[in-house]
Design brief:
elongated, two-stranded antiparallel ribbon, 405 residues, 14 helices, disordered C terminus, 60% helix
């Protein structure tokens, strides 16, 4: 399941309501907010309860304040149900949602419950008051344990729903109702505290899962994606069948000689610096991965062949024109690039990488520091791929500042 920033609230008030204590990584915020939608059965249970209670009390105490309460509950239910269904579907699809309106409707629901408690307790009908207050207490328990992804929202909803009940008890003139002035604030504090504790536990779990996933998909040395991360990136693109893909398969020219001459430590330093350079010279929307040794993959949107070749040559030029200081020595490297292009979102990463790898070999045979497209592969050249009988066109040697290309 993927989430996008479209699920995040845009209004200042709703953003404040869903903020959590402490720093929350940006990549975790959408899934936290999406959790506020909950499941349809839980929603229907809460809504049917308040609609039923308000309707029963309005029938028992037939007056305008109670008719208004019942009508407001029914109207809110009619508004919140489509917001829940459409919002949950949109969030799962990564589309924009009406989360701001959904959050405010939830706050309005809590305020409506509080209003009902207030007018019922003041009515002096203690049978109706018992029903309403018990219903409100049950509702707040569900709010606390269903919405703890946003504990501030929980606190506001509980205060709005039970706070008026405590106020009404204090001004009702009934001695036994004075206990609510003490009990309800304690209850509100306890439920709010519980939601904050649950939120902290949830965030800790989500951070751990996110870190484990990041480590599983990240190259330890360079911080770029590894093969697993690359496959995940392609899978996320596959949800949109209109997206084509361009794969750049990059192999450094001259790296082996630097590694052998200056040592593996210098080679590792060079790979890190090359990775930083690739991040600087490629668009932010591209996906960069190191799949082993001195081989890199860049995923881009679909390009026409001319643009793809120009982009590949741009990467080569950026590398060959840059001097890297590693192992106490200034060195340069080149790169050969193989390119494969697909025009649909249903791409086979392994097949595309194989095509790009074949094109990369052609670039090596033709003299290195070249960008070659997969359609231009000659079968007889690929048949000798990495064969010991076919020596490389350019020796893989370096003299601190070599002429790689």
């Amino acid at each position: 399941m993927r989430y996008s920033d479209g699920v995040l609230p845009r209004w200042a008030l709703t953003r404040w309501l869903v903020e959590c204590a402490g720093e929350v990584p940006a990549e975790l915020r959408p899934s936290l907010v999406q959790g506020l939608y909950g499941s349809l059965p839980i929603f229907l249970g809460g809504v049917m309860n308040t609609v039923l209670v308000s309707s029963i009390v309005a029938t028992r105490i037939a007056s305008i304040p109670f008719f208004l309460w019942a009508a407001f509950e029914i109207g809110l239910a009619a508004l919140r149900l489509p917001l829940l269904i459409s919002g949950s579907r949109a969030a799962k699809a990564g589309a924009r949602t009406y989360i701001d309106l959904y959050i405010l409707a939830a706050v309005g629901w809590a305020a409506s419950v509080g209003y009902g408690c207030f007018i019922t307790v003041l009515s002096g009908d203690w049978l109706a008051s018992t029903l309403v207050v018990l219903s409100a207490a049950a509702m707040t328990g569900g709010v606390a344990f269903r919405n703890f992804a946003a504990p501030r929202l929980v606190m506001v909803m509980i205060v709005l729903s039970l706070g008026p009940c405590a106020v009404a008890g204090l001004i009702s003139g009934e001695l036994i109702m004075l206990a609510t002035g003490l009990q309800i604030p304690i209850y509100i504090y306890a439920m709010t505290h519980a939601s904050y504790r649950l939120n902290a536990m949830l965030l800790q779990t989500m951070r751990s899962e996110h870190e484990n996933k990041r480590r599983a998909q990240q190259d330890v040395l360079t911080g770029l994606m590894n093969r697993a991360g690359l496959e995940d990136a392609v899978a996320s693109r596959a949800t949109d069948p209109t997206l084509g893909l361009t794969v750049f398969y990059i192999d450094l020219d001259g790296f082996k000689a630097i590694n052998d001459t200056l040592g593996h430590g210098a080679g590792d330093e060079l790979l890190v610096e090359v990775s930083k350079l690739m991040n600087r010279v490629t668009p932010a929307s591209d996906v960069i991965a190191r799949i082993g040794g001195d081989e890199f993959i860049i995923l881009s949107d679909e390009m026409d062949p001319v643009t793809a070749r120009q982009s590949g040559q741009g990467i080569i030029d950026a590398l060959t024109k840059t001097s890297f200081f590693v192992g106490g020595t200034t060195v340069t490297v080149g790169a050969s690039v193989g390119i494969a292009i697909r025009s649909t979102g249903n791409v086979d990463l392994s097949a595309m990488m194989l095509d790009a790898d074949r094109a990369l070999y052609v670039a090596k045979v033709k003299g290195r520091c070249r960008a070659e497209l997969a359609p231009s592969i000659a079968p007889n050249l690929y048949a000798a791929r990495r064969s010991p009988e076919v020596p490389p066109t350019v020796p893989d040697t370096v003299h601190y500042r070599p002429a790689i290309c």
